[in-house]
């Protein structure tokens, strides 16, 4: 059962990696969540195991408290799109944590889990090496989302050639490779396996380090460096506990492994001018520093409980610096976004869960070594090996989270949850254990089962709607408006309160109206759908903009102007809302107002047609006869 659950969890992470890591669209992670749901339900078997080692009660309590608060906050967050995304994500992370803390506790099951992910890491590095060395944009998989293709597939773009594997960004791959570096390194140095297995594991760790360099991820490199320092410190702790007659040899071997891994990465770094140029600007990042203040301002709106899961996407548009035309879904800082979306309470609970699990992992690491030294002369322990790997990985993740949003990416968030679960249960019973911690095993087993059942319910309720949403979006971008309308209607049949589906249906009706038999009827239907969409998600500026366009087509100009102004209020730094408003004013004959609107839009970075329209309007005003 332990091995089966380990296989399901590893396959869940890999399944999410194959679809952009599960980024931004709930539909991308549905197969992943289905695997986690099955594994979570199977986790109930841990309750009936009499000799199973229970997890650390404090770590479990802190994690379940944090997970419970985050889940509650996602369920009470208005809006449909990202609130559902975070509900799935938080539930799956809690399930994976509980399973790794109470089911995947034996060395065999953990070896299986890590081995499958190491194979995935090797494949990712191969793809990353091709992307780093070959000109153009190499993507080995089909594009499942036309919107993602439009955002990321830019073969003509110039700049750094970064390896990103089958993730969309090198920063996301660096997170995964950092985790696998330390897990494989821990097994190579402290695991109880054959010498050739240790050599292979050390080689894989070096490959992961080299892959991290290929990503050109500055946050990944910082996390890797801090993790290596912690690994060295914990190695010294291990030598202090045992192996008195072999300390020098073991220390030299550990240092050799570190030197080979870091040396290989440095050699690759020294041979690449691109990598050197990227790392030379490690402290220069105006892009992220323009996003972080918006998250801090957002946190001041609802300091305790935050403004809601995923609300940064919409509120940051009103709070950010408008010197750039970026419109990011995430704050590129997991800690800042947690404080903004979930408040000070959420931030404290997440930080506390991290600290309690790290402390439990360290105590389990030391205890595993001491028990091993009581029966042997070498500090070789599989439990300690997984412990040191997970401890260093969690440090790397915590550091990397200050610069990126990997905890918003299901594949990477589930890996972090698994490492935390490893730390909550070292797999060996503490000395003096009398069974008082058995309650923690029961709670964890029931929690994993409950999360599995809840995930299954979420899948039944939302899978069809999310899948239809993705299909409708793809059809709309491809110009197949009838298919987009049909698919959106199918999704709304199961989820009538899905605001994004209603907006997509409204857009499809607007786009298809000119070629329909009754254009006015199409505009009337689109207006109805878009009004419902704005009612369900009033802070989404695209809802307001599409509603304004639909109302203009029905010649309801006063209502259309109100919707245009509301779209500008929701996202004053977006050039599109200004340009469409100016175009609306021009179409209604308000020439002077349109000129002023175009002039305002030119002050916003990223405008597309304002300059040409403004020039044409001024020329028209100049040539028009004077009014008497």
Q: Gist?
A:
The protein is mainly alpha-helical.
Give the tags.
mainly alpha, 628 residues, 3 domains, 25 helices, single chain, Serine Threonine Protein Phosphatase 5, Tetratricopeptide repeat
What does this structure look like?
With 628 residues, the protein is mainly α. The protein is 72% helix and 0% strand. The chain is built from 25 helices and no strands. The chain has helices at 2-17, 30-42, 57-75, 81-102, 107-133, 146-152, 170-190, 195-215, 218-241, 247-270, 273-279, 286-299, 312-319, 334-373, 382-400, 410-424, 438-478, 481-494, 499-512, 519-536, 541-553, 557-570, 575-587, 591-602, 610-623.
Ordered list of secondary-structure elements with their pairings:
Elements: H1 2-17, H2 30-42, H3 57-75, H4 81-102, H5 107-133, H6 146-152, H7 170-190, H8 195-215, H9 218-241, H10 247-270, H11 273-279, H12 286-299, H13 312-319, H14 334-373, H15 382-400, H16 410-424, H17 438-478, H18 481-494, H19 499-512, H20 519-536, H21 541-553, H22 557-570, H23 575-587, H24 591-602, H25 610-623
Helix pairs in contact: 1-2, 1-5, 1-16, 2-4, 2-17, 3-4, 3-14, 3-17, 4-16, 4-17, 5-7, 5-8, 7-8, 7-9, 7-15, 7-16, 8-10, 9-10, 9-15, 12-13, 12-14, 14-15, 14-16, 15-16, 17-18, 17-19, 18-19, 19-20, 19-21, 20-21, 21-22, 22-23, 23-24, 24-25
């Amino acid at each position: 059962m332990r091995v089966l659950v380990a296989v399901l969890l590893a396959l869940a992470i890999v399944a999410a990696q194959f679809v952009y890591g599960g980024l931004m669209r709930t539909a991308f992670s549905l197969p992943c969540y289905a695997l986690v749901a099955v594994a979570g339900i199977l986790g109930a078997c841990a309750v009936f195991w009499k000799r199973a080692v229970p997890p650390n009660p404090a770590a479990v309590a802190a994690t379940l408290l944090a997970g419970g608060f985050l889940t509650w906050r996602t369920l009470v967050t208005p809006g449909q799109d990202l609130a559902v995304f975070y509900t799935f994500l938080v539930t799956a992370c809690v399930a994976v944590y509980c399973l790794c803390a109470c089911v995947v506790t034996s060395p065999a099951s953990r070896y299986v889990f890590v081995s499958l992910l190491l194979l995935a890491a090797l494949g990712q590095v191969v793809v990353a090496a091709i992307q780093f060395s070959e000109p153009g944009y190499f993507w080995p998989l089909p594009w499942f989302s036309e919107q993602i293709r439009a955002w990321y597939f830019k073969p003509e773009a110039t700049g750094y050639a970064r390896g990103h594997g089958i993730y969309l960004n090198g920063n996301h791959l660096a997170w995964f490779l950092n985790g696998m570096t330390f897990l494989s390194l821990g097994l190579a140095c402290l695991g109880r396996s054959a010498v050739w297995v240790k050599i292979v594991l050390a080689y894989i760790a070096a490959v992961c380090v080299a892959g991290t360099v290929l990503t050109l991820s500055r946050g990944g490199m910082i996390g890797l460096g801090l993790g290596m320092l912690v690994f060295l410190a914990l190695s010294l702790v291990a030598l202090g506990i045992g192996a008195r007659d072999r300390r020098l040899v073991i220390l030299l071997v550990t240092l050799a492994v570190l030197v080979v891994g870091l040396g290989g990465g440095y050699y690759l770094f020294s041979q690449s001018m691109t990598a050197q140029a990227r790392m030379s600007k490690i402290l220069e990042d105006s892009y992220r520093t323009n996003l972080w203040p918006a998250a801090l301002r957002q946190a001041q709106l609802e300091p305790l409980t935050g403004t809601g899961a995923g609300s940064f996407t919409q509120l940051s548009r009103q709070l950010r610096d408008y010197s750039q035309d970026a419109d990011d879904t995430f704050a590129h800082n997991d800690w800042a976004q947690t404080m903004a979306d979930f408040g000070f309470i959420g931030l404290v609970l997440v930080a506390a869960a991290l600290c309690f699990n790290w402390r439990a992992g360290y105590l389990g690491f030391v205890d595993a070594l001491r028990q091993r030294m009581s029966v042997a002369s070498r500090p070789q322990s599989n439990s300690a090996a997984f412990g040191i790997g997970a401890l260093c990985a969690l440090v790397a993740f915590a550091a990397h989270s200050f610069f990126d949003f990997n905890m918003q990416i299901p594949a990477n968030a589930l890996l972090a949850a698994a490492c935390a679960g490893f730390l909550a249960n070292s797999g060996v019973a503490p000395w003096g254990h009398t069974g008082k911690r058995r309650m923690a095993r029961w709670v964890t087993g029931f929690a994993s089962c409950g999360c599995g059942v809840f995930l299954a319910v979420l899948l039944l309720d939302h899978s069809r709607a999310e899948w239809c949403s993705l299909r409708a979006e793809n059809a709309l971008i491809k110009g197949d408006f009838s298919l987009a309308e049909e698919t959106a209607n199918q999704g709304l049949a199961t989820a009538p309160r899905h605001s994004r589906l209603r907006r997509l249906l409204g857009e499809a009706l607007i786009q298809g109206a000119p070629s329909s038999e009754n254009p006015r009827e199409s505009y009337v239907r689109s207006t109805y759908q878009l009004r419902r969409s704005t009612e369900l998600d009033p802070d989404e500026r695209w809802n307001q903009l599409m509603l304004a366009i639909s109302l203009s087509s029905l010649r309801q100009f006063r209502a259309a102007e109100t919707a245009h102004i509301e779209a500008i209020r929701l996202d004053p730094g977006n050039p599109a809302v200004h340009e469409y408003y100016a175009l609306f004013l021009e179409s209604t004959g308000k020439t002077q107002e349109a000129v002023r609107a175009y002039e305002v839009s030119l002050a916003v970075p990223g405008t597309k047609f304002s300059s040409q329209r403004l020039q044409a309007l001024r020329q028209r005003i100049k040539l028009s006869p004077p009014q008497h």
